[in-house]
Amino acid sequence: MADALFSSAEAKAQLASGVVAKLVKAAEASSLLTVTAHGTVMGVQWRRVAEAAELGAAEMGALRDWIEEIHSKEAADRFSSSLPSVAVTVKEELPAAALAPAASSKLVYSTSAAAATPPAGEFERLMAGGSSASADPFGLRSSSLPLPSPMSDTEREDVAAHGFDSGKIASLTWLIHTARPCPPNSVDFKYGVDPSAVRKLYGGLQSSVGTLLWELVKSDISTMKDFQNHFYRAVQAAVDADIRARISNHWTEMMQYFDSVEMVRSYYKKFLTIRSGRGLPKIIDEHIVMLVMCSELERSRGGTSSSATAEMQTMVSTMEKQTRSIESFKETVTDLKLKVGELKSQVNDLKTGHAALKEKVGKAGGRDSRVCGFCGAPGHTEAYCHKKLADEAAKKASAEA
Q1: pTM of the entire structure?
Q2: I need a labelling partner for 313 at 20 to 30 A (CA). Which of 48, 180, 237, 328 fits?
Q3: Tens digits of residue pLDDT in 10-59
Q4: 28: which strand partners?
């Protein structure tokens, strides 16, 4: 199973780990569940493993997309269709009592009535309570005849959701895919079958006049007008009024939900994969809408236009320059604070020296006749005035700050 999943091939696209774990577990549970074929048969084998693994709708869709990417669209389309049914005849052994020859019985009449016609009451009793062979003279109850398959839970839910039977759902599915009248008397045309997987019916339509929904989904140049024309043709081709109303209501709702053809393509790509062969269980499937919206959000986050990218880069560059300027200014302020601190320390040293010198001079008792023209103190001139030097240093520090 690891080889079929390409688990060791880094160049190949990989499935989600949760889906891989379920598929491996289902394959290990039965030796018959394996994927060894090539071509379209591979899609059948993958479908058997996926159903045994009980994958959910989203997981089935992811597996189908992976098969188309890794292998081929034909294998993916075959995976999307239902599994082929195989009729198995069960022969039941009859009990020995039933195989024993029946005992002969005689009707005894009186001599006078021996040749008379049996009474009406006796005739009716023989017809009503005869042997088992007479109760089923043509073998219509034989176990060798195919019995009608029971309706699955999904089919029962779809019938209730549509309000009409499986035959109409099959017609609705065909009209959604092809926008053409339904094919008459085809054994492949039934509920649960993806029309694109029926090559005999679907293959000839690709070259005929008209549109196919899968082709519009795969095309990069399809427009909203193309989708509108497709569903208009589908409504015109529908004979049943219920089917016409279902298709018309669906497209009307679609135009209210989506205004982008890319999102319409994304919706139908997921819808035709997840709800394959099931008509329109919901006019608009909210689960698929959510998946489309999430994908669009991821795409918007991941890919931006060139102009938006350039604008974003310019803004980032400007913010980086401003950040560098702010950091440089902070460094300059820090340096100035350090210098101011050094100047204050020098001023304090000068004050301390001046006080010591003044005390020393006073103790010496000698008085200099010179008087300072700056501070007016005796004993020195203005050129050697400590007060003047201190004031000038303080002004210089204030100016640099």
Answers
A1: 0.41
A2: 328
A3: 656 777 777 788 888 877 777 777 777 777 777 777 788 888 878 787 77
A4: none
Q: How far is CA 55 from the centre of its chain?
A: 14
Please list, in sequence order, all residues whose beta carbon lies within 8 angstroms of the beta carbon of residue 287, skipping any fewer than 6 positions away: 57, 58
Q: How far is CA 280 from the centre of its chain?
A: 19
CA distance 286 to 291: 9
Span 275-303, average pLDDT: 81
pLDDT tops 50 at residue 144:
no
Contact 390, 350 (CB under 8 A): yes
Inform me whether the pLDDT recorded for 320 exceeds 60: yes
Q: With respect to residue 144, please indicate whether it lies within any of the assigned structural domains.
A: no
Q: Are 264 and 223 in contact (CB under 8 A)?
A: no
Alpha helices (runs of H) in 258-305, residue ranges in sequence order: 261-274, 286-302
Average pLDDT, the chain: 74
Structural domains of the chain, count: 3
Q: What is the token pair recorded at 94?
A: 């009859």
Residue (of 269, 276, 251, 263) closest to 192 by Cα position:
276
pLDDT tens by residue, 205-245 = 766 667 888 889 888 899 999 999 999 999 998 888 999 89
Q: Cβ–Cβ contacts within 10 Å for residue 346, how many? A: 15
Report if residue 98 sits inside a domain.
no
The model's pLDDT over 252-263, given as tens digits with 9 standing for 90+, comes to: 888 888 888 888
Q: Which residue, among 292, 301, 221, has the nearest Cα to 254 in the 3D structure? A: 292
Which positions ≥6 away from 214 have C-beta within 8 Å? 177, 196, 272
Q: Say whether both 336 and 296 belong to one domain.
A: no
Last residue within a domain, chosen from 80, 96, 122: 80
The domain boundary, picked from 80, 107, 127, lies at 80
**Calpha distance 117→287 (Å, rounded):** 75
Domain hosting residue 294, numbered range: 154-302
